[in-house]
């Protein structure tokens, strides 16, 4: 079980993710910074995972379906002890096993390669259904982006999970309100978002996606099925894209822009330099 | 083929409690027995093919050996990226089963004609592509698929295909390609139920003094070299499939022959692009509209046999 403090983990992961996208000249740092608190809470006690036994058959499953936030996930995994921190140094560079989108091949702790949106939830439904069918006490966590909810598979799977009462499935939506080109509501309106999930038969909670206590209590569903109606849970995590770096916050520009030397220095000065070494 | 598949799958499920069947809301009147006997290993996901493959990948990652059943292009093209990413690149043991190969659903219109599927599935890494010719082959290949580690595509006809094998086959016999007619003059390599046309063409050729060797080729990818070895000593190869002439059996044969440095002439017979989408009708009618008839197969084979030696046969008119 990972017992690292979630705040320490998130702080260190933010620094590592900014550094990785700077070195790798890669995109999506804004997306990483918005989701890191969610991942940090999952990997610091909510999900039953063990870095020393990443393929433990009894483990819970965490799937980052918004695979473009790879630097965020890899940073959280590395700081949790799934693989050496040094691996982050060549993120997305020649020969690295850490691709610019989440890649499971030879990366401990990664359950599914993602990067094409809309793949994580169907896969998670399959795992949750298998656990139900075999009586395994496994929980499955799928972390999605809000833009990803444009994908038809999201709603196909939402129907299926509710139909089968998969209360061992938890979806966390990183609701940062920004997708590739503009605000989600300008692009393809999602609101009323909570009501949509609710209408599909899900238990819906909305939390501040950067408040670890709130995230923890929303994501940490009971392991035993409750009596009565069994529903999958979606936690709508209200987040800020680029969270923690003032000039990146709520800026669609940082969906794609890679931090240059100057941006890196400014970002690090805001993110408590030295946190990565803890 | 469909009934043989489900019958064999039920037998496999009795032997191995990892066998799981997912359907995409299709299979009326054929999947009910499996669903009743193995309710814990059956799932109808509804009309949601992309989710169907993702769920299959999740079940496979949990230890099940998953068969996914639908018809036509629905379980392949509609969810191609799910098959690529979630199944093939993760090397998961999922067999995609499509009923309605080629023009099996000819009268239903071209949405239901599966004639590019093999090309698309063959291009995916680690994918095994199986295309039985009759119920006997369907049965043994179902068992073969269940034993594979990794992804598989099983392309089935419907029901009532001509039976080409009188006795059950064992797996090794089936996989290497089955000689349906003996002959030394020319070889016809055929896949799927249209192999029965090749058998009829061989009868026709016999009357013309040409001995055609007809081989049923149920494993298209990876194509066993032994299949091409069966053509050695003959004048050339005609490939026959109810599928595009690009990317299917014909392409696999050409690629393999080139790799083996074989120098035999090859005539590829498949569907005719200019005819596609313009016709509706029975399987036989659709084949004819695409130039795939007993006569055209015989002519193509005769043309190769004649080129190899003195003959007074009339030129053939293959539609490649």
TrEMBL record, chain A:
Pfam families: Transketolase_N. The keyword Kinase does not apply. SUPFAM superfamilies: Thiamin diphosphate-binding fold (THDP-binding). Residues 7-252 form the Transketolase N-terminal domain. Its cofactor is thiamine diphosphate. Keywords: Thiamine pyrophosphate. Belongs to the transketolase family. This is Transketolase. It comes from Actinotalea lenta.
Automatic annotation (TrEMBL), chain B:
It comes from the Bacteria. SMART domains: Transket_pyr. Pfam families: Transket_pyr, Transketolase_C. Residues 1-163 form the Transketolase-like pyrimidine-binding domain. InterPro entries: PDH/Transketolase (IPR051157), THDP-binding (IPR029061), Transketo_C/PFOR_II (IPR009014), Transketolase-like_Pyr-bd (IPR005475), Transketolase_C (IPR033248). Coiled coil: none annotated. This is Transketolase C-terminal domain-containing protein. The lineage of its organism: Bacteria, Bacillati, Actinomycetota, Actinomycetes, Micrococcales.
């Amino acid at each position: 079980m990972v017992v690292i403090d979630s705040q320490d983990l998130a702080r260190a992961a933010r620094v590592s993710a900014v550094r990785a996208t700077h070195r790798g000249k890669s995109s999506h740092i804004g997306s990483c910074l918005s989701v890191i608190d969610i991942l940090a809470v999952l990997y610091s006690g909510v999900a039953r995972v063990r870095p020393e036994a990443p393929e433990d058959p009894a483990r819970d499953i965490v799937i980052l379906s918004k695979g473009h936030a790879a630097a965020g996930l890899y940073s959280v995994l590395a700081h949790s002890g799934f693989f050496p921190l040094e691996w982050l140094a060549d993120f997305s560079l020649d020969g690295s096993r850490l691709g610019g989108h989440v890649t499971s091949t030879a990366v401990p702790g990664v359950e599914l390669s993602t990067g094409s949106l809309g793949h994580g939830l169907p896969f998670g439904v399959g795992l949750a259904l298998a656990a139900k069918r075999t009586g395994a006490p496994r929980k499955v966590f799928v972390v999605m982006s809000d833009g990803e909810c444009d994908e038809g598979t999201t709603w196909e799977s939402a129907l299926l999970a509710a139909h089968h009462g998969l209360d061992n499935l938890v979806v966390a939506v990183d609701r940062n309100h920004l997708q590739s080109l503009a605000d989600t509501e300008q692009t393809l309106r999602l609101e009323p978002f909570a009501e949509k999930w609710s209408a599909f038969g899900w238990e819906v909670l909305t939390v501040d996606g950067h408040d670890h206590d709130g995230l923890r209590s929303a994501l940490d569903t009971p392991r035993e099925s409750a009596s009565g109606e069994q529903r999958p849970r979606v936690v709508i995590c209200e987040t800020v894209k680029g969270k923690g770096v003032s000039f990146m916050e709520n800026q669609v520009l940082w969906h794609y822009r890679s931090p240059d030397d100057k941006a890196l220095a400014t970002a690090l000065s805001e993110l408590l330099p030295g946190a990565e070494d803890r | 083929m469909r009934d043989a598949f489900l019958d064999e799958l039920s037998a496999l499920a009795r032997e191995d409690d990892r066998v799981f069947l997912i359907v995409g809301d299709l299979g009326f009147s054929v999947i009910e027995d499996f669903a009743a006997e193995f309710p814990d290993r059956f799932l109808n996901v509804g009309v949601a093919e992309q989710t169907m493959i993702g769920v299959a990948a999740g079940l496979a990652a949990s230890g099940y050996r998953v068969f996914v059943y639908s018809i036509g292009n629905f379980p392949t093209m509609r969810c191609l990226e799910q098959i690529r990413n979630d199944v093939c690149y993760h090397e998961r043991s999922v067999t995609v089963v499509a009923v309605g190969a080629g023009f099996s659903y000819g009268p239903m219109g071209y949405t239901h004609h599966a004639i590019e599927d093999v090309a698309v599935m063959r291009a995916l890494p680690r994918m095994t592509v199986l295309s039985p010719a009759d119920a006997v082959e369907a049965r043994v290949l179902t068992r073969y698929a269940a034993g594979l580690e990794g992804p598989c595509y099983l392309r089935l006809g419907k029901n009532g295909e001509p039976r080409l094998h009188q006795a059950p086959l064992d797996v090794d016999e089936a996989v290497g390609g089955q000689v349906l007619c003996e002959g030394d003059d020319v070889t016809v390599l055929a896949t799927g139920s249209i192999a029965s046309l090749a058998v009829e063409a061989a009868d026709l050729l016999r009357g013309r003094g040409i001995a055609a060797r007809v081989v049923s080729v149920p494993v298209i990818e990876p194509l066993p070299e032994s299949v091409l070895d069966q053509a050695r000593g003959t004048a050339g190869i005609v490939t026959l499939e109810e599928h595009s002439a690009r990317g299917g059996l014909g392409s696999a044969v050409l690629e393999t022959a080139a790799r083996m440095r074989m120098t035999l002439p090859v005539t590829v017979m498949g569907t005719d692009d200019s005819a596609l989408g313009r016709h509706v009708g029975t399987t036989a009618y659709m084949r004819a509209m695409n130039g795939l008839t007993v006569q055209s197969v015989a002519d193509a084979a005769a043309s190769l046999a004649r080129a190899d030696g003195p003959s007074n046969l009339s030129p053939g008119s293959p539609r490649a």
